[in-house]
C-alpha cells in the first residue's frame, strides 16, 4: 500500500516532510531560561501572517474550536448580544457555542452559498442605539460551502453604523493560504489552527488579539481558566507558559513560518489562487455548479461542488476512498449528499491537484456520472500551463 498521502479534504492538510521532521523533537524543559529564545520570535513572526503589527499572538494546545471558545470567554459576559450570520456548518457551530455560553446571538440566516451580509449587519447595528451588541462574529472562509466573506465590507458596515462592537473572525481555513489584513480590516480577534494553512498536525489554536480586545478582557465576566488570555500573556512575557506547552507544534510552527516566508506570502496566496482556479475550471468542464453563489465569494482553499440531480455525494466520496484510497470532503449539514468538497490548501502543487481531479473523474465515471474522462483535468492543465507561462513572461 502506498504511503503517499494526497489528501483533498479542506484540513487537516498534508504535512510536508520538512514539517514532520521539525515536529519530531525530544522533550525540553519549558521552564528553562532559554525557552524564551524559542517562543518569543515565533510569536513575533506569526503576526506577519495575520497582517498585524499590534496584535498579541496566543497559542493554546487545542484545535480551532478552542480558539472560538477563547475568543468569546475572554471578552464577553453572560447575556451579551452578539451578531452573527449563519451560512454553513462552521458559522452554525460557532452560534451553538455562543448559546451554550449564555450569550444571546442575533442570528442572520442567509443561503448556504452566500457570505456575511454586510448590508444587513449595517442596518441591525445602526438600529442598536444602546450598543447592546458586544461583538460581531464572522467566519472568513466557510469551509462547508467554499465561501469567502468580505471582512473589509463588514468593517465598513460597522464603521458606517458607528458601532463599537468587537469584531471576531474565524480564519481557521483561510489564514496562511489567503490574504488576511487584521490591522487594516480592524479585526479584534482572529482565530486559526495549526492543521490547515500552517500544514502542521492538529493541536494548536492560534489566536491574534487586538489591544481593544485585551481591554475588553478587563471587564468581561464569562469564566475562563485553561483559555485565559491573561494567564497566557503574563507567562509568555517571560518566555513561559501557564501549563505544559505543545513543544512539538511550537517547533513545527517555527519551521512552518520559515517555509511560508521562503516561498513568500504573496506567492503562497497566488499558488492557492492558481490551484483553486484550476479546480473551478474543471468543475465548469464537468458541467457542474459550485455551492458558492458568485465569483467574488469563491474560496481559494476549498470548493464545494453540487453533484447532478439523482446522485449522492456521499456515495461518490466513499467510492473514491474505497476504490482509489484518496479522501475528499463530504457534504456537511444541509449539503450532506448534495455536494462534495475539494480541499486545495496547504502543501499542494499543480501536479497534485491534477491527480486529485483525475481521481474524481474516474470515480464519477464508475458511478455513471455524465462526465467525460479527462475533461476537467484538461481544463485545469490548460489553466496551469497558461498561468505558468504568463508568470514566467512577467518575471523575464
Ligand atoms: C477547521 C475549521 C475550524 C476548527 O475546527 P477544529 O476541528 O476545531 O480545528 C473552525 N472553523 C473553520 C471555518 C474551519 O474550517
Per-chain topology:
Elements: E1 7-8, H1 17-23, H2 35-50, E2 56-61, H3 64-75, E3 81-86, H4 89-100, E4 104-109, H5 118-127, E5 133-139, E6 141-142, E7 147-148, H6 151-160, E8 166-170, E9 189-193, E10 204-209, H7 211-216, H8 229-236, H9 247-263, H10 265-285, E11 302-306, H11 313-324, E12 327-328, E13 339-343, H12 350-366, H13 375-395
Parallel strand pairs: 1-12, 3-4, 3-5, 5-8, 8-9
Antiparallel strand pairs: 2-10, 6-7, 9-10, 11-13
The chain binds pyridoxal-5'-phosphate.
Pyridoxal-5'-phosphate binds next to α3.
Describe what you observe in this structure.
The protein contains 13 helices and 13 strands. Helix 2 (35-50) crosses helix 9, helix 10 (265-285) packs antiparallel against helix 13 and helix 11 (313-324) crosses helix 12 (350-366). The mean pLDDT is 96. The radius of gyration is 21 Å and the shape is globular. The protein starts with 6 loop residues before the first strand and ends with a helix. By secondary structure, the protein is α/β, with parallel strands linked by helices. The strands form four sheets. Strands 2-10-9-8-5-3-4 form a seven-stranded mixed β-sheet, sandwiched between helices. It has a two-stranded parallel ribbon with strand order 1-12. A two-stranded antiparallel sheet has the order 6-7. The chain has two domains: 2-11 and 264-395, Aspartate Aminotransferase, domain 1 (Alpha-Beta Complex); 17-261, Aspartate Aminotransferase, domain 2 (3-Layer(aba) Sandwich), CATH 3.40.640. Helix 4 (89-100) links the parallel strand 3 (81-86) and strand 4. It binds pyridoxal-5'-phosphate. The site of pyridoxal-5'-phosphate has 12 residues, from helix 3.
Amino acid at each position: 500500500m502506498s504511503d503517499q498521502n494526497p489528501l483533498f479534504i479542506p484540513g487537516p492538510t498534508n504535512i510536508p516532510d520538512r514539517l514532520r521532521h521539525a515536529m519530531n523533537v525530544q522533550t525540553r524543559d519549558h521552564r528553562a531560561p532559554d525557552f524564551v529564545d524559542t517562543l518569543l520570535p515565533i510569536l513575533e513572526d506569526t503576526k506577519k501572517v495575520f497582517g498585524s503589527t499590534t496584535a498579541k499572538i496566543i497559542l493554546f494546545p487545542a484545535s480551532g474550536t478552542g480558539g472560538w471558545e477563547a475568543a468569546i470567554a475572554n471578552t464577553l459576559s453572560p447575556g451579551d448580544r452578539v451578531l452573527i450570520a449563519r451560512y454553513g456548518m462552521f458559522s452554525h457551530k460557532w452560534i451553538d457555542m455562543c448559546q451554550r455560553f449564555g450569550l444571546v446571538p442575533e442570528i442572520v440566516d442567509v443561503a448556504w452559498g452566500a457570505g456575511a451580509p454586510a448590508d444587513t449587519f449595517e442596518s441591525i447595528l445602526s438600529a442598536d442605539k444602546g450598543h447592546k451588541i458586544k461583538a460581531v462574529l464572522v467566519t472568513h472562509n466557510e469551509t462547508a460551502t467554499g465561501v469567502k466573506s468580505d471582512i473589509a465590507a463588514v468593517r465598513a458596515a460597522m464603521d458606517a453604523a458607528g458601532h463599537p462592537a468587537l469584531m471576531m473572525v474565524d480564519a481557521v481555513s483561510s489564514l496562511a493560504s489567503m490574504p488576511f489584513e487584521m490591522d487594516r480590516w480592524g479585526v479584534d480577534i482572529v482565530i486559526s489552527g495549526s492543521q490547515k494553512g500552517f500544514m502542521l498536525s492538529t493541536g494548536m489554536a492560534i489566536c491574534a488579539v487586538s489591544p481593544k480586545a485585551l481591554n475588553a478582557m478587563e471587564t468581561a465576566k464569562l469564566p475562563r481558566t485553561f483559555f485565559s488570555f491573561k494567564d497566557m500573556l503574563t507567562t509568555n512575557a517571560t518566555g513561559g507558559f501557564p501549563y505544559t506547552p505543545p513543544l512539538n507544534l511550537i517547533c513545527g510552527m517555527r519551521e512552518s513560518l520559515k517555509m511560508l516566508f521562503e516561498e513568500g506570502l504573496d506567492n503562497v496566496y497566488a499558488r492557492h489562487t492558481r490551484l483553486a482556479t484550476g479546480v473551478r475550471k474543471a468543475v465548469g468542464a464537468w458541467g457542474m455548479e459550485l455551492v458558492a453563489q458568485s465569483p467574488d465569494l469563491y474560496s481559494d482553499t476549498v470548493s464545494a461542488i453540487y453533484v447532478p440531480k439523482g446522485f449522492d455525494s456521499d456515495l461518490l466520496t466513499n467510492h473514491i476512498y474505497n476504490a482509489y484510497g484518496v479522501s475528499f470532503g463530504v457534504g456537511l449539514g444541509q449539503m450532506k449528499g448534495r455536494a462534495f468538497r475539494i480541499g486545495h490548501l496547504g502543501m499542494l502543487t499543480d501536479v497534485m491537484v491534477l491527480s486529485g481531479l483525475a481521481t474524481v473523474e474516474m470515480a464519477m465515471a464508475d458511478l455513471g456520472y455524465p462526465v467525460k474522462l479527462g475533461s476537467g483535468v484538461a481544463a485545469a492543465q490548460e489553466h496551469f500551463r497558461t498561468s505558468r507561462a504568463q508568470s514566467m513572461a512577467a518575471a523575464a
